[in-house]
Structures are given as structure tokens and as C-alpha cells.
Amino acid sequence: MKKIIFTEKAPKAIGPYSQAIEVNGTLYISGQVPLNPETGKMPEGIKEQTEQVMKNIGAILDAAGYTFEHVVKSTCLLSDMDNFQAMNEIYGSYYKENPPARAAYGVVKLPLGALIEIETIAVK
């Protein structure tokens, strides 16, 4: 049975999707863009945007009873692959030991003009 996960501490969905879905001990977090849930605005710069995305993911993980240690897979979408190194620096600070599997792609454009979007899968 699937369980819808929602928290006010992460941005509300900007389309017909849920922040996350939990099924059989697996949490599927929709792609998170760097919207600050309190202001509805995005910070400037790739490092700041990556930090906000990771905070949003952390809030959803927490709401579902998971932590970053439960994350097994991330998919990072970048509007410019020249931002890969800077994104990696912030992203890596959340996974100092036993980082999850990951893919990173350069894409033409992201929602709301974001520089980064990250989707996440966690397992208990």
C-alpha cells in the first residue's frame, strides 16, 4: 500500500505529483528544486541552490521517518554541467560515508529556471 508523504518544511508540488511516496519500506522523493518553502523563492548560485535542494530532501526524509543514511540512489539534473564540481562539493557534504548510487545529467532547462533538481530514493 502506498503512503503519500507531505511536509510544510519542503516546497509544495508545482504540478500533479506528491513530494514523496512510500511503498514497502522504500521512499521515492520527487525531484526537488531549490525553492525555499518559507519564502517561495530560490537562492542565487549553484552552491546555494544545491544546499536548498538538500535541505528540502532532508525535510521530506524526516517527515517520512528516514535520514540521509537511508538514501540509496540520487539523480541530479543540472542546467549547466559546468556547475558539476560546485554541486558535488555541497552534495558530498551530506554523504560523507557510504554515499548512495548516483547519476548526474546536464539538461536543457529545469522548472522555474532552477540550476539544479535532485530526485531521491531511500530504503529502510
List keywords for this structure.
6 strands; 60s Ribosomal Protein L30, Chain: A; alpha+beta; 23% helix; 124 residues; six-stranded mixed sheet
Question: Compute the gyration radius: what is it?
Answer: 13 Å
- What characteristic shape results from the CA principal axes? globular
The second-level CATH architecture is 2-Layer Sandwich
Largest sheet: 6 strands, mixed
* Corresponding CATH superfamily: RutC-like
In percent, how helical is the residue content? 10-25%
Number of helices: 2
CATH topology: 60s Ribosomal Protein L30, Chain: A
What is the CATH class name? Alpha Beta
- End-to-end Cα distance, whole Å, is 16 Å
**What integer is the average pLDDT?**
97
Strand content: 25-35%
Word description of this protein:
The chain has 124 residues and is an alpha+beta fold. The chain has a single domain, classed as 2-Layer Sandwich (60s Ribosomal Protein L30, Chain: A), CATH 3.30.1330.40. It has helices at 46-63, 84-93, and strands at residues 2-5, 20-23, 26-32, 71-78, 101-106, 116-123. It has a 6-stranded mixed sheet, covered by helices on one side.
